[in-house]
Amino acid sequence: MSKENNRSGLGGKIWAAFIFLTRIPMWRLHQPPKEAYTHIVKFWPLTGWLTAGISAVMLYFIAPYNILIAVLATIAARLLLTGALHEDGLADFFDGFGGGTSKERILAIMKDSHIGTYGVLGIVLYILTLGSSLFSLASFNPKIAALTIIMADPFAKLLASQTIMLMPYARKEEDSKAHNIYSKFSLGSCLFLLVQGLLPLGLFIWIVKPTMLQILLLAAVPIILCALLNTYIYKKIKGYTGDCNGAIFLLCELSVYITAVFVII
What we know:
It contains 13 helices and no strands. It is an all-alpha fold. The protein has helices spanning 2-7, 10-21, 44-62, 67-82, 85-99, 103-111, 117-140, 142-161, 163-166, 176-181, 187-208, 212-237, 242-263.
């Protein structure tokens, strides 16, 4: 029993988070017990340190040679690292909320594995906006662009993770995969989440030295967007799903890049 408890402790939960949220084959080295996967959202920003770090390195070192290729490589790197997990949720989110007129219909559409018109259009517009934002930042200063990625990914994941504290799970019959992801947070977990999400922001502030107004805008815009998305989602389906969390993360992260284009450049 003690061995099983040890495996599902802090280390096991963090390990489970990286297994589930990335495509790095860490499961070959160790497979945490199923219980560990109920806590992985509490370490979502921590996985962002890895995905953001690798993406930022790609952008920083390739941009001096060709900015367009650097941006494409940066986007491709994260898609490969995450298996497009969040983008799949964003597409389902657009399909469900775009085509559904009732809670039941929205949830049914999001559960459908096929992508619809809203999902295709949403993903295309998202990638184009993301690419153009990163291109503008990298053209201005590759170092600042890379640091913005390092800051934006964990911060947006911090915001998206709070959704499970604000509303119940929307589906009546939870499938095992969705049920494993979302458990409520303790005070200690919330504090640890804040550290994970805010440390990269502190690094950005320390190196880039933005003005107080720039800092406030970079933080406030995604926070406000997250609040609006949560309000909209709760009004429509009275709860959250994994697709909603993925969509909130990507849209809040994108809002950081767009804000940075307007207030940093």
